[in-house]
TrEMBL record:
<keyword id="KW-0472">Membrane</keyword>
<feature type="transmembrane region" description="Helical">
    <location>
        <begin position="82"/>
        <end position="104"/>
    </location>
</feature>
<feature type="transmembrane region" description="Helical">
    <location>
        <begin position="12"/>
        <end position="34"/>
    </location>
</feature>
<protein>
    <submittedName>
        <fullName>Uncharacterized protein</fullName>
    </submittedName>
</protein>
<feature type="transmembrane region" description="Helical">
    <location>
        <begin position="57"/>
        <end position="75"/>
    </location>
</feature>
<keyword id="KW-0812">Transmembrane</keyword>
<keyword id="KW-1133">Transmembrane helix</keyword>
Length: 109
């Protein structure tokens, strides 16, 4: 009898795709926020804070996705509730996006 557990589609498989979509969309939005620097006058914007916050967000976003994806792929057939891993990764990506967006709002005004 063959083991078909790894062939079936699990709910977490869809959540990994949603997490990827959240990560890519939020990275693009943060990149688009950088373009607001063109509207800054001489001393209005905090340029070092803009640079460090965007790089920090991009690295955090990338690492959260890699860790969540790796853990999910390792545990998807071993744990019944493995869908929690990509769901929590997507939630962390959204929280990081909200924090980075608020920091950028302060630095660009």
């Amino acid at each position: 009898m063959e083991d078909r557990r790894s062939e079936r589609t699990l709910p977490g498989d869809y959540l990994v795709g949603i997490h990827l979509l959240i990560s890519v969309a939020s990275a693009i939005v943060i990149w688009a926020r950088i373009l607001e620097i063109a509207g800054c006058a001489e001393n209005e914007c905090d340029y070092p804070l803009v640079g460090s916050s965007t790089r920090t967000f991009w690295w955090m976003d990338f690492l959260v996705f890699i860790v969540a994806f790796g853990l999910y792929m390792f545990l998807r057939t071993r744990i019944r509730r493995s869908w929690i891993i990509p769901a929590s990764g997507g939630a962390l990506a959204l929280i990081g996006f909200l924090i980075a967006n608020s920091v950028l709002s302060g630095a660009l005004s």
